[in-house]
Amino acid sequence: MSPASQLPPLAELEASAAVVRLPLTVKFRGVLEREALLVQGPAGWGEFAPFLEYDDVESSRWLASAIEAAWEGFPAPVREAVPVNGTVPAVGAERVPEILAKYGAVSAVKVKVAERGQTLADDLARVAAVREALPHADVRVDANAAWTVDEAVEALTALAPFGLEYAEQPTAGIEGLAEVRSRLRASGLRVPIAADESVRKAEDPLRVARAGAADLIIVKAAPLGGVRRALEIVREAGLPAVVSSALDTSVGLAAGVALAAALPELPHACGLGTGALFAYDVARSPLVPRGGVLPVAPVAAGEVVPDPALLAEHAAPGDRRTWWLERLRRCYAVLAG
Ligand SMILES: O=C(O)CCC(=O)c1ccccc1C(=O)O
Ligand SMILES: [Mg+2]
């Protein structure tokens, strides 16, 4: 996180702040719209968009990431394109073809599972529909920590025959992940376990790696406090990493692309295709996948910027702008210590 002495003045953040509300074409995390506060600094634009229920301490890391993007810019890329997965929210199986069509050709698909109010049968049907549409794709599932250990073992045992690349955060907590992982191995099922919430919401993002509780880690630029901090975490974790979005606008996705582009190794497709779920974005040329990849060049060239007309068109209502500016001030105070 940026040391307090390196923080730009709050007035500069406030002066450039644009608050948008963007409609999605499909419900994600239970919502049909995404709000974000965008700031402009000498290095470009940054996105501050912690989910509405997050507290100020957790949200302040997202602000550090926005400040890095706008005042410091991104480290040099080592690749020209970032392969991405399509993301299938917890929709009914009959909607899978329509959702997949949004991404175009992708070599990997992430399927949300364990949605509250749904059953294992719903998950099996959704994953089956993805497998039917894309027989050769890498299919990974994400339970967002919603299963118990027993439920996770049962569900992943049932899902494994579809061929799973890995299971993301099947259950909450590092001990739970370790137990799911070892119980699957003991039964001869090699489903790699990826840690997401156990990295991005943990007090110590490295503990899951030290505990040997996961085979890979999911890293997101904003929740981890920026691209450089995320790179450091991957280096120290010593595990393969998958860069994923936080349902960002193209400005936030650019930070994810910069992170994925700067990682020494990128063995899996990244979860950065979510721009395709937005009905509208802030950039004239949004970061949506083409041919299964996102290009690094426009990010490195600082071309992924909001269009003033789109910012105006999608400006959040006045009371929401006030709410975001107040949140910005509180999180700035956290960073300033
Ligand atoms: O990884 C992806 O495919 C898309 C991003 C995603 O799933 C996500 C988006 C917003 C908040 C949490 C998550 C998550 O990975 O759990
Ligand atoms: Mg996840």
Structural notes for this entry:
With 337 residues, this protein is α/β, with parallel strands linked by helices. The protein folds into two domains: 4-73 and 307-336, 2-Layer Sandwich (Enolase-like, domain 1), CATH 3.30.390.10; 81-300, Enolase-like C-terminal domain (TIM Barrel, Alpha-Beta Barrel). It contains 13 helices and twelve strands. It has helices at 10-16, 56-72, 96-101, 120-133, 149-159, 174-186, 197-200, 207-210, 227-237, 250-262, 297-300, 308-313, 318-336; strands at 18-28, 31-41, 44-48, 81-83, 85-88, 108-112, 138-142, 166-168, 193-195, 216-219, 241-243, 293-295. It has a seven-stranded parallel sheet with strand order 5-6-7-8-9-10-11. β5, α3 (96-101) and β6 (108-112) form a beta-alpha-beta unit. α2 packs across α13 (318-336). The chain is globular, with a radius of gyration of 19 Å. The protein binds 2-succinylbenzoate and magnesium ion. 2-succinylbenzoate binds at residues 29, 85, 87, 110, 142, 144, 196, 244-247, 271, 274. The site of magnesium ion has 6 residues, from loops.
